[in-house]
Prior knowledge:
CATH class of the largest domain: Mainly Beta
Number of strands: 12
Distance between the termini: 20 Å
CATH topology of the largest domain: Tumour Suppressor Smad4
Order of helices and strands: HHEHEHHEEEHHEEEEHEEE
Number of domains: 2
CATH architecture of the largest domain: Sandwich
Number of helices: 8
Largest sheet: 12 strands, mixed
Strand content: 25-35%
Amino acid sequence: MSRIVALFDEAGVNYELLESRAVGDLEARVQERVNEGARRIVVAGGDGSIHEAVNGIMRADGGARLGVIPTGTGNDFAKACGIPLDWEQATRLLADRINADARWRRIDVGRMNDRFFANGVGIGFDARVTKVARAYRWPIGQLVYLFALIRCLIDGVSTPDMTISSDGVTLEGPITLANVSNGAWVGGMFYIAPMADNADGSLELLVADPVSRLRILQLLPKIIAGKHIGEPEVMHKGVRQVSIRASEPVPSHLDGEVVTPMCDFDIELLPAALDLL
């Protein structure tokens, strides 16, 4: 953080430094600052920090533009937005844009029930993987998600019955996972929705039918490379809204933030809802 501050000081950027102290603190403080009139919010952090900042901005009375300096593990949102993953380069570019009052761009935001998301929603198996990965504290970067996936395979793959409805199309039956993507990546290394564009006015729904442990391992290299679309177990559809009803509480995540298991998921797109610096 000290180096980021130094780069902003060198560039002559005026700012107020706030540091998050607990889960939920960043969201509350962003909402407070935007309500008080802040027009720019710059977040140095990972996808969880961006998730909180987006919810703070979207819940506030006024609008504010979001700037991102990626310092997380997966940095899925930064990849989706074309932000350099080198945080020092990203800081310098952002400072230049702020000083030049450069034109910003508008991106889509999603909402699941009462929470907003910037990058995507995972329901089922990938949410289990995310929960396990978050429990590890190993300094191995994105590989933590791969180890978490293997751990979940050892524990077994559950396939609860779900009813998925969108634009007059309904799917019913056992499901391994349902993913609704605004950006292309999950967990830093999984190219889950290669067609996703967070400024195209569409979310990407991917549904995986029941698959064995062996089949998941066979599909894994294709998912990392974004070559799984078209596989017989994978259904893809562009959507603006989708409702999912599970027969039992299932885990889910929003932008990698694990949510308490639930049965009902109402997901919608808010097109061009957020300004990105």
